[in-house]
Amino acid sequence: MKSFLISDNRDTWVGMRLAGINGIIIHEKDELLEALNAARKDEEIGLIIMTEKIVDLAKDEIMEFKLKVARPLIIEIPDRHGTMRSENAITNYIRESVGIRI
User: Fold this and answer.
1) pTM, rounded to two decimals
2) Which one of 9, 63, 70, 93 has the lowest number of neighbouring Cβ atoms within 10 Å?
3) Nearest-CA neighbor of 50 among 67, 31, 25?
4) What CATH superfamily is the domain 2-98?
5) Does an H or E element contain 45, and which?
6) d(CA 37, CA 85)
7) % of the chain at pLDDT higher than 90
């Protein structure tokens, strides 16, 4: 299985390329949804890596995708400037996804 990066940041893209991960740089919501659908159709891609800013462009659509589609797995990473999320981001994600308060 391959990994694929969807980023808004050139530095993140270059870093991932150095690690052997292909990807694209985008800045618009429609480009993001197109890239997500194309990556989903590629049978070789098992992991989609997205920067936090990219996820924020289409948060609802990506959350729905995460909940309904088993493959590829989507993970969210900070860019080189660090995370924009609160320290309780994972707890909030679990609460939103599963409905369990931990």
Assistant:
1) 0.77
2) 70
3) 25
4) ATPase, V1 complex, subunit F (3.40.50.10580)
5) strand 45-51
6) 25
7) 46
